[in-house]
């Protein structure tokens, strides 16, 4: 059926039109001005305090601490402390025990005296949160490396897992890419269980609620006898017996297999998996295997980690990874919508750069789709083994919108990328981020997976993104891949009309992604699921005209779409409503006015909130680029609807 036509209201007056044009102009110029000469855009990707804390502790563990760097890192960590003494995992969030323990430990390592008021507050808050035994598994591993928790408090991870065949129900390739790259070096580390004791001034005995030797480090069981969690806790006990009995020749074979796997994926400049936790684990694992700090392998690993640092005059903070392909592709789409010519030199440079980033290596994904040629794009500057569907989709859209000197080359790249994305469509009609049908969610019950994100199943926001890309490439509702994805999306709508957002916060992100995708392939935007989503969006608008949503919605879905208005989330809501044919809705005019009234003189918007998602309920992200390109995109699309209707 024909999509509902856009019906844009007439601008209230000339001043409104002038303000809109000025905002789009200023946002466009600001984005063009921050393009790298090489052609890409990359904005800071901010995480909570844990990454910087882990960086400080990693360098201490390796014996390469730098006092000047540590002092700047300490200032950054202290700047994020809450008044109650703890540290949150997202802006304006409550204190989190794992983040608080890591920050406290890092500060003590830097030499901050125990009597310092910040440490005194943190110590009280940490104990109020249950003490050191309540931290998550990754924090337990970090503490074990320094002897601040016994290795018995870490789930058993026998390195022999490397030798499990692919036909076995649980094997390395049945978990997500990020879990894989983090786990393999951890298997090496666990096989060695290295301990480099923390200095006396940095010990953490005060965070144990009972004497350390009396602390219960076991994992809590479910009250019900027969549950999958209890089953996997039983398996953990069995694995500990295996760990004591396994013969060394067999173990050494497994360790060598893990080492080969890891080194093969560290050949590029981006580090293992392109993410800090995997990079840090890899460096530690290499030292366990006897590699010196001066070895090419360790130096390459540390160089990738140093590349994540933002070393300012007064503070040092560390990003979890880099986002240039994501930032570049989204910026290109925003600029085209804002009226920048398709063959503008800036867009040509960006397009050329994106073409050069297309993957040529058959990464781990090939095991799920053998015979498919590489063609996706990763998130980072270099992560050849792990392209992802989300980035590939936004790149395909951005390339489709611009004009390059060699259009034939661009067409071939798009064809390769499209074939790769289509090949990764799951049997349920949706897409995971990195692999096809990576959906054995039962593994999230194993003790190691206390973050609940061991797997990479299909998600509705990714399905919407792919549909949006497919629509730009000419797909319509009768295409089998598009029809299956649309059916998947309809089956996953929440009762209130929204859609869940796995990779952005949260229901505003998911609902925008879905509505953009449905419109792109020509779905009927009057169908009940769309109308229900529109009603939900309008009902969630704040009195100031904007939209906002807290990371807390992952803990309590009843708060979905509720929170302080932010620039990016307001933009997502506006884009969703405009794609749904709601340009005439008064809510759209109020949302546009919110963005116009909050734009900064430099053309961007303020946004201290975290609106990106790493792992729901565990790890969140603040994409600094979101406050730049998404509001511009929404304002420009709003303007286009006026122009199309002759206003």
The fraction of residues assigned to DSSP E strands is under 5%
List unreliable stretches of 5+ residues: 1-11
Using only C-alpha atoms, the radius of gyration works out to: 25 Å
Q: Which structural category fits the helices and strands?
A: mainly alpha
What does this molecule look like?
It is a single chain. This protein is an all-alpha fold. Strand 2 and strand 3 (316-318) form a beta hairpin. The longest helix is centred in the N-terminal third of the chain and has 20 residues, at 14-33. Residues 1-11 have low confidence and may be disordered. It contains 22 helices and five strands. The protein starts with 13 loop residues before the first helix and ends with a helix. It is globular.
A few lines on this structure:
By secondary structure, this protein is mainly α. The chain has 22 helices and five strands.
Q: Which structural traits does this protein have?
A:
647 residues; mainly alpha; 3-stranded antiparallel beta sheet; two-stranded antiparallel ribbon; 22 helices; 5 strands; 3% strand; globular
Topology record:
Blueprint (H helix, E strand, L loop, with lengths): L13 H20 L11 E2 L2 H14 L4 H13 L17 H13 L7 H12 L8 H9 L31 H16 L35 H18 L2 H17 L11 H13 L7 H11 L2 E3 L4 E3 L5 H14 L7 H13 L31 H13 L5 H17 L36 H13 L7 H12 L15 H14 L7 H12 L27 H13 L6 H13 L13 E4 L3 E5 L2 H19 L3
Antiparallel strand pairs: 1-5, 2-3, 4-5
């Amino acid at each position: 059926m024909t999509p509902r036509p856009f019906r844009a209201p007439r601008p209230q007056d000339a001043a409104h039109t002038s303000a809109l044009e000025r905002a789009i102009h200023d946002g466009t110029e600001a984005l063009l001005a921050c393009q790298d000469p090489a052609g890409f855009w990359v904005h800071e990707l901010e995480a909570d305090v844990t990454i910087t804390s882990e960086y400080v502790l990693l360098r201490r563990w390796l014996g390469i601490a730098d006092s000047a760097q540590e002092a700047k890192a300490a200032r950054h960590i202290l700047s994020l402390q809450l008044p109650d003494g703890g540290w949150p995992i997202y802006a304006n969030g409550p204190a989190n025990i794992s983040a608080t323990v890591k920050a406290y430990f890092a500060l003590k390592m830097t030499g901050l005296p125990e009597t310092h008021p910040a440490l005194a507050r943190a110590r009280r808050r940490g104990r109020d949160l249950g003490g050191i035994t309540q931290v998550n598994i990754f924090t337990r591993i970090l503490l074990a490396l320094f002897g601040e928790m016994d290795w018995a408090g870490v789930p058993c991870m026998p390195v022999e897992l490397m030798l499990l065949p692919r036909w076995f129900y649980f094997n390395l390739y049945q978990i997500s890419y990020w879990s894989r790259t983090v786990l393999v070096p951890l298997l090496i580390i666990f096989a060695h269980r290295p301990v480099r004791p923390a200095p006396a001034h940095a010990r953490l005995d005060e965070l144990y609620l009972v004497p350390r030797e009396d602390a219960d480090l076991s994992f809590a069981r479910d009250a019900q006898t027969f549950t999958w969690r209890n089953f996997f806790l039983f398996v953990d006990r069995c694995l500990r017996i295996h760990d004591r009995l396994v013969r060394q020749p067999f173990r050494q074979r497994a360790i060598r297999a893990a080492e080969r796997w890891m080194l093969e994926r560290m050949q590029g400049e981006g580090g293992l998996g392109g993410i800090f936790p995997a990079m840090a684990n890899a460096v530690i694992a290499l030292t366990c295997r006897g590699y010196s700090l001066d070895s090419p392998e360790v130096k390459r690993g540390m160089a990738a980690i140093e590349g994540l640092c933002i070393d300012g005059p007064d503070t040092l903070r560390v990003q979890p990874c880099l986002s240039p392909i994501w930032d570049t592709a989204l910026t290109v789409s925003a600029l085209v919508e804002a009226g920048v010519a398709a063959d503008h030199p800036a867009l040509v440079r960006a397009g050329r750069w994106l073409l050069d980033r297309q993957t040529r290596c058959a990464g781990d994904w090939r095991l799920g789709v053998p015979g498919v040629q590489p063609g996706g794009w990763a998130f980072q500057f270099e992560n050849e083994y792990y392209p992802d569907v989300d980035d590939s989709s936004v790149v395909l859209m951005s390339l489709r919108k611009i004009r390059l000197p060699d259009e034939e080359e661009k067409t071939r790249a798009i064809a390769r990328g499209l074939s790769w994305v289509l090949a990764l469509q799951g049997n349920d009609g949706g897409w995971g981020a990195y692999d096809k049908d990576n959906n054995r969610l039962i593994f999230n019950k194993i003790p190691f997976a206390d973050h609940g994100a061991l797997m990479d199943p299909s998600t509705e926001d990714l399905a919407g993104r792919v549909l949006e890309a497919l629509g730009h490439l000419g797909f319509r509702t009768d295409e089998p891949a598009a029809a299956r994805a649309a059916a998947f999306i309809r089956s996953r709508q929440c009762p209130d009309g929204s859609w869940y957002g796995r990779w952005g916060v949260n229901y505003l992100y998911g609902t925008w992604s879905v509505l953009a995708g449905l419109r792109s392939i020509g779905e009927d935007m009057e169908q009940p699921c769309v109308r229900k989503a529109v009603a939900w969006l309008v009902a969630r608008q704040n009195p100031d005209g904007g939209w906002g949503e807290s990371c807390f919605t992952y803990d309590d879905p009843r708060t979905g779409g509720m929170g302080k208005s932010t620039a990016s989330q307001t933009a997502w809501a506006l884009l969703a409503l405009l794609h749904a044919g709601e340009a005439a809705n008064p809510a759209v005019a109020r949302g546009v006015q919110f963005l116009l009234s909050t734009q900064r003189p430099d053309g961007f918007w303020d946004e201290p909130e975290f609106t990106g998602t790493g792992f729901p309920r565990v790890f969140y992200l603040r994409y600094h680029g979101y406050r730049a390109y998404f509001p511009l995109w929404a304002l420009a699309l709003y303007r286009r609807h006026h122009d199309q209707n002759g206003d």
